[in-house]
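Input (GDP-mannose 4,6-dehydratase):
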Amino acid sequence: MKTALITGITGQDGAYLARFLLGRGYRVYGLLRRSASADVIGERLRWLGIEREVEMVDADLVDLSSILRAVQATQPDEVYNLAAQSFVKTSWTQPLLTGQVTGIGAVNMLEAVRLAAPQARFYQASSSEMYGLIQAPIQNETTPFYPRSPYAAAKLYAHWMTVNYRESFGMHASSGILFNHESPLRGIEFVTRKITDGVARIKLGLTQTLSLGNLDARRDWGHAADYVRAMWLMMQQETPTDYVVATGRTTSVREFCRLAFAHAGLDWEAHVTVDPAFLRPAEVDVLQGDASRARERLGWEPEITLERMVAEMVDADLERLRRRGN
Ligand code: NDP
Ligand code: GDP
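Output:
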């Protein structure tokens, strides 16, 4: 039986990845940081019905001693480093924390693996945000990076440290440069989930309007369930390297709104307003990925279309609100 250690297991990708690995017979350990709200931790794992199947280890990414003990105790075959301060907008108000967790935290993981489980394979959650002010209309593994936020700068450091640990110490370390991916388990502060939650609230008569920022921004949106499969495939390759994971299709926030409202039988223009509070100090206008390498070497293809994902997200938010009633 293989053993995996997932940091960020309570987040969107961690939950989907845990389900995927359990389905393949893995023993799955997850890093859990202490919270005063212990009762709400693991809500995503509960939603997927796997909260009792994963084993939690107490650790925080910024505390190397805890990370080292976690790696030592679990002796994983595969380590997936998904933990991060992952929200771009917050990275301008908490730039140092973002650097500590998203940047240095990844190096803490690399060090812990190098010291305590050097044979383990390592996955780093890199991000299309590293392309930022894009240097090519469609981005692949050779496109130069131009980070546009403290989040992206921290991810870029973690990305290059992963490459360096691979090249310096022969570690089986790969980075997945994942473009945006969403699901019903996406954090509510991200634009897609904010929209589908807003649509559900409007549909149920709980509110009338939804305030957003830049409607012209374009993203290459895929589904998290498809993307965690790509992470695992990277870990099964003999030779580690970096892979872009993307759908190849770019869509504006405006068009996402239209699709989500239309799924509930609503007209987005009657409800969406623009509030400058949701604009950012610097914007990433457009991202569009070329996942040819993942297709060719991993045999990976996204299976869930944007339309199907939007429908799933709106339906899940309607269901949640009907159950909760607020
Ligand atoms: P989430 O924000 O949903 O999850 C982040 C996870 O990190 C949570 O489990 C959180 O724990 C954990 N975490 C945060 N700080 C710490 C810390 N100090 N110590 C230990 N754990 C911590 O992110 P996603 O699942 O969406 O993304 C997974 C990874 O992929 C992230 O690194 C993200 O930056 C990256 N990424 C995501 C993309 C996307 O579109 N989703 C695109 C490209 C990259 P807690 O529950 O306690 O807060
Ligand atoms: P990001 O790509 O990781 O920053 O993911 P987000 O979902 O947070 O943002 C995607 C894009 O949507 C960015 O270009 C935002 O500027 C844009 N956007 C427009 N309105 C909003 C909003 O109200 N909230 C968020 N989070 N993003 C918004």
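Residues 88-89, 129, 180, 189-192, 194, 212-214, 217, 219, 253, 278, 280, 283-284 surround guanosine-5'-diphosphate (ligand 2) (CB under 6 Å).
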